[in-house]
From TrEMBL:
Native organism: Staphylococcus arlettae
Protein name, entry field: Methylated-DNA--protein-cysteine methyltransferase
Gene Ontology molecular function terms on file: methylated-DNA-[protein]-cysteine S-methyltransferase activity
E.C. number: 2.1.1.63
Catalytic center residues: 134
NCBIfam families: ogt
Keyword Transferase carried by entry: yes
Gene of this entry: ogt
Length: 177
């Protein structure tokens, strides 16, 4: 059984899911197919871990860099889980390219090379957005490539974290220099 709650944020309504012990998902309002990905019945019911996540998100959206002190349990293939683990090492306010992640995985696997495209697929399938910061992954040239929640949300999250973005990739409505 999975449990869910909604959280109103500056990037829209977020749906958070838990198995009662671990956070299993954090989804944007445009990702309404999340229940199929969980392969389990999902019910709206308060769980103790949800208060911890609410507090974390409150601090995060205020521009703080809170520590995740509750367990996450993303479920995927071994390769995807390896990529998601690397995402958790990207510090707030910084970015990493798909190629850099591919290089890290290649080194771990003892290979000369790993496909940045395969990494992109794994990043795009991250079930716990924001907490596992896939929004911090950019193209080789710093471009803000696709994001499950939408590029507008990716830009907003990076702005909250005060990531320096090239003027070319700033939204036209941005007031930042």
């Amino acid at each position: 059984m999975q449990y869910k709650m909604n959280y109103s944020s500056p990037v829209g309504v977020l749906t958070i899911t838990t198995d009662g012990t671990h956070i299993t998902g954090l989804w944007f309002d445009n990702q309404s197919d999340y229940e199929r990905k969980l392969n389990d019945k999902v019910v709206a019911q308060e769980q103790p871990i949800f208060q911890q996540v609410r507090t974390w998100l409150d601090h995060y959206f205020q521009g703080d860099n809170p520590t995740i002190d509750f367990p996450l349990k993303p479920t995927g293939t071994a390769f995807r889980e390896q990529v998601w683990e690397i995402l958790t090492t990207i510090p707030s306010g910084e970015t990493m390219t798909y190629g850099e992640i591919a290089d890290k995985i290649a080194r771990v696997k003892g290979k000369d090379k790993m496909s940045a495209q395969a990494v992109g697929g794994a990043v795009g399938s991250n079930p716990i957005s924001i907490l596992i910061p896939c929004h911090r992954v950019v193209g080789a040239d710093g471009s803000l490539t696709g994001y499950g929640g939408g590029i507008d949300k990716k830009i907003k999250l990076l702005e909250i974290e005060t990531v320096e973005m090239a003027p070319l990739y700033r939204p036209k409505h941005s007031t930042k220099p």
